[in-house]
Known about the structure:
TIM Barrel, single chain, eight-stranded parallel barrel
Amino acid sequence: MSVNKLGVHALVFAGGTTPAEVEYIITETKKAGYDLVEFSLHDSPKLDVPGTRAALEAAGLGVVASRGLSFTADVSSDDADTVARGAALLHDSLAITEGLGGTHFTGALYSALGKYMQPLSTAGRANVVAVLKELAAEAAGKGMTLGLEICNRYETNVINTAADALRLADDIGHDNVLIHLDSYHMNIEEDDFTRPVLLVGDRLGYVHIGENHRGYLGSGHIDFAAFFHALQDISYTGPITFESFSSAVVSPTLSNDLSIWRNLWNDGPELARHAREYLVHAIDGASRVYS
Length: 291
Ligand code: MN
């Protein structure tokens, strides 16, 4: 059995976080056998934080919160007001994560999720570092960690590779800032599924598992055996969360930010059960290597 807690992204089940949607997400996450659920905070004004926390605790589920920013609230901007709006979103989201009972807040905490039309500016990068230094200090005071999710070039211009992310984390300079690898993004940007894992090593804090088209695990061409071997080589014991998106379940914001234009599945609960079985077998299989 895996030493890693296995998680599932809430958007496998529902596009928003109204009370009825949260109840459905938690019920289906539990039924599918996962240890934790990841909520995107894009829809956070609708989220009943204490009610969700109580439901998670009643179900015995852990929680991780994630988000990206937007072009009007973006800490990688050169514009001070835009940076301030981004910083405010991050501080609010950290408080929501804490309110949910989570200790890990991750995602594209450093920029909008979307296509930038120019490279990151020097001033923009300095703004990212300054805001995340402050957020990391606040998180450390709460016993929480921040994740830097490495996203592909069409979703950010701040960090596209593990090497970029480590440089950014070094500049932020707080040891509660961890790296978040995602197989979907790695497939686009990294040399392979081994070298970035070895490079990040014990600074890896969170993992997203997604196919190259973000559909059913095993229906695409990601080399999960190579990835799980590498995770075992660094003795990664943190969470591994399944992430998949289809036009069958739509968030009015996140689905568009992620360019989810295709229907890759219809039945979220069935997809979630399939993914968990796939992960359990793939992680176990990768450990059965004799030499
Ligand atoms: Mn991801």
